[in-house]
Amino acid sequence: MTTPLLQALVHGPLLARADGVRTVGPAVLPPGIGEALRPDIRDKCLLRRSRLLTVTGQTVSENTVAARSGVDPRVDKAVTDRSQPVGFALAEAEVVLRRRIVHVGRATWPDGTPCAVKTYTLDSDGRPLLCIRELFNPFIVDATVRVKELTEMEPVRAARSGPTVMSALTGS
Questions:
Q1: Helix or strand or coil: residue 25?
Q2: How large a percentage of the chain has pLDDT more than 90?
Q3: Which alpha helices (DSSP H) does the chain contain, by range?
Q4: How far is it, in rounded angstroms, from Cα 5 to Cα 11?
Q5: Torsion (CA) 59, 52, 12, 96 in degrees, nearest 10
Q6: Average pLDDT, stretch 135-163?
Q7: Which structural domains are found in the chain, ordered by start?
Q8: The 3-state secondary structure of 96-139, one letter per residue
């Protein structure tokens, strides 16, 4: 779902560039990702670092993907396929998983600029099978936090939209 939205923002296709895929133990997973994925101590995990690029080579997102290896060979193949985004590879393999948002907020882009970040799991049988963290290029996805004062008419709309916004942010 994220990649088509990013393609719409840049008005064109995005290319996946996997910087590396390796098999690791759970202790090696980056902070936040291991806690969200919740692998067993004996699990082997696939760890993929990749970027989505415009056709001109501009980085649109930097992604870290971790998957519990050996659970579903189609998932393992999708994560290790360096030629396309993981979501596209999963769709091509007809893998259906439930997305659960773990975190949305701000992080730091490699150049030190604040950027938007989203972390989510893709669950199978009620348990995370993959965890994906996406950092978005702040020159493409604005990470600026804006505060707007409410007028007398706006509190009703804000109150109605509050739970929906909270639900989207917390994943509940």
A1: coil
A2: 76
A3: 2-10, 33-37, 73-80, 86-92, 154-170
A4: 10
A5: -160
A6: 65
A7: 2-144 (3.40.1410.10)
A8: CCEEEEEEEEEEECCCCCEEEEEEEEEEECCEEEEEEEEEECCC
Residue 12 near residue 58, CB atoms below 8 Å: no
Kindly report, residue by residue over 88-97, the tens digit of the pLDDT: 999 999 999 9
Rg of the chain over CA atoms, in angstroms? Answer: 17
* Cα(172)–Cα(168) distance, integer angstroms: 7
Cβ proximity of 130 and 122 under 8 Å: yes
Q: Is the pLDDT of residue 165 over 60?
A: no
Residues 59 and 137 sit within 8 Å (Cβ to Cβ):
yes
Give the containing element (helix H, strand E) for 18: strand 15-24
Q: Whole-angstrom Cα distance, residue 3 to residue 60?
A: 10
DSSP for residue 141: S
Nearest to 45 by CA among 58, 19, 64: 64
CA angle 144, 33, 3 (to 5 degrees): 55
The whole-angstrom separation of Cα 71 and Cα 96 is 14
Q: Which amino acid is at 7?
A: Q
**Residue type, position 54, single letter:** T
Among 140, 122, 144, which Cα is nearest to 132's?
A: 122
